[in-house]
């Protein structure tokens, strides 16, 4: 249900862009915003340790039209995270704390999902950050660390009690990493036991799966991550479907190639040609697919550094598709 509790947080949509390190950078956030004017977009996770060392980083760059935008911080030192949150207030409409990252090097340092095993520390982080900022504070966590430790309901209550204004929950455990299937139904139990808005996350890849997820989770909205790979219009398409019942089909091959060209150009503008072209290689599988010879072409594209040559090959796909 999208109600005043959501509006008071400056949420304007039931759809948000989930943070993805190395993926939801300034460029992808801008592309998502070209379609959806109202979804909450979230930065990649920003390490509070790193931000404390270097303030002037590409990761914080935003445009005026990016609002509403949330900046996600990771870490485990309450005052350090709070200082970073305070610094980010000039960019952010909301601060999010990462309590779900499953990666070994993150959880070993008691950051990310390791905080779910240390709710007292997580509460202290939330309390300290909340006391130092004047914008809403959210937390993003999972169902638990393992299936034997499904503490998400109690954990969510504790985050609310400590001052969190909003929750995004990825319906997997840390031990699942990204495998198995997100269990949307479990989220309903959290939703019934907290008063703050809850967005459901995990495996929403289309307008229909968004609607199913909302029904099963009873959540206020959905957060979408991997679905935007190769399709920055997805959040807009989901909004049109769940708000207006209007189904917009996924992009055609031609549209995907045009979007990839735009994506590459924007990365080149943002990072310079050499770095920008190489950065975009990870996106090829999501845009250059579903036609005969796609895999071979991708194999060739990742070896090319020259922007003009890449565009020539991409235009070749469009010509042979005619
Ligand atoms: C490459 C990649 C990077 C991610 N980085 C972050 C991150 O920085 N912070 C975070 O909270 N979650 C991160 N996630 C998790 C996503 O936000 C999301 O919870 C997860 O992918 C499930 O949602 P989805 O099925 O819509 O992708 C990342 C996921 C992927 C695949």
Could you characterize the architecture of this molecule?
With 322 residues, the protein is α/β, with parallel strands linked by helices. It folds into two domains: 4-244, TIM Barrel, CATH 3.20.20.70; 253-321, Non-ribosomal Peptide Synthetase Peptidyl Carrier Protein, Chain A (Orthogonal Bundle), CATH 1.10.1200. The chain is 45% helix and 14% strand. It has an eight-stranded parallel sheet with strand order 1-8-7-6-5-4-3-2. It starts with a helix and ends with a helix. The relative contact order is 0.11. The structure holds flavin mononucleotide.
- Overall, the morphology is globular
The counted number of beta strands is 8
Can you identify the CATH superfamily of the largest domain? Aldolase class I
Spatial separation of the terminal alpha carbons: 45 Å
SSE pattern: HEHEHEHEHHEHEHEHEHHHHHH
Radius of gyration: 20 Å
| Total helical segments | 15
Helix/strand/pairing class, anyone? alpha/beta
Count of spatially separate domains: 2
Strand order of the largest sheet: 1-8-7-6-5-4-3-2
Estimate percent helicity.
40-55%
Corresponding CATH architecture of the largest domain: Alpha-Beta Barrel
Name of the top-level CATH class of the largest domain:
Alpha Beta
Low-confidence stretches: none
């Amino acid at each position: 249900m999208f109600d005043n509790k959501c509006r008071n947080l400056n949420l304007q949509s039931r759809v948000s862009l989930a943070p993805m390190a190395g993926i939801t950078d300034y460029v992808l956030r801008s592309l998502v915003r070209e379609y959806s004017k109202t979804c909450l977009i979230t930065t990649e996770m920003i390490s509070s340790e790193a931000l404390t060392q270097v303030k002037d980083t590409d990761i914080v760059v935003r445009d005026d039209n990016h609002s509403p935008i949330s900046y996600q911080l990771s870490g485990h030192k309450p005052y350090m995270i709070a200082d970073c949150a305070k610094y980010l207030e000039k960019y952010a409409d909301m601060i999010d704390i990462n309590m779900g990252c499953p990666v070994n090097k993150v959880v070993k340092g008691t950051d990310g999902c390791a905080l779910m095993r240390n709710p007292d520390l997580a509460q202290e982080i939330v309390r300290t950050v909340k006391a130092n900022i004047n914008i809403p504070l959210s937390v993003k966590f999972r169902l638990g660390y393992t299936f034997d430790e499904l503490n998400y309901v109690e954990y969510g209550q504790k985050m609310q009690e400590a001052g969190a204004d909003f929750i995004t929950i990825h319906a997997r455990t840390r031990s699942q990493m990204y495998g198995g299937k997100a269990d949307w139904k479990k989220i309903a139990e959290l939703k019934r036991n907290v008063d703050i808005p809850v967005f459901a996350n995990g495996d929403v890849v289309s307008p229909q799966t968004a609607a199913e997820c909302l029904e099963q989770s009873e959540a206020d909205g959905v957060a979408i991550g991997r679905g935007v790979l190769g399709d920055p219009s997805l959040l807009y398409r989901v909004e049109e479907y769940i708000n207006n019942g209007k189904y917009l089909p996924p992009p055609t091959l031609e549209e995907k190639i045009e979007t990839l060209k735009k994506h590459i150009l924007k990365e080149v503008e943002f990072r310079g040609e050499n770095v920008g072209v190489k950065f975009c290689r990870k996106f090829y599988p999501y845009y250059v697919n579903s036609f005969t010879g796609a895999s071979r072409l991708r194999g060739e594209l990742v070896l090319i550094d020259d922007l003009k040559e890449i565009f020539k090959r991409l235009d070749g796909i469009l010509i042979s598709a005619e």
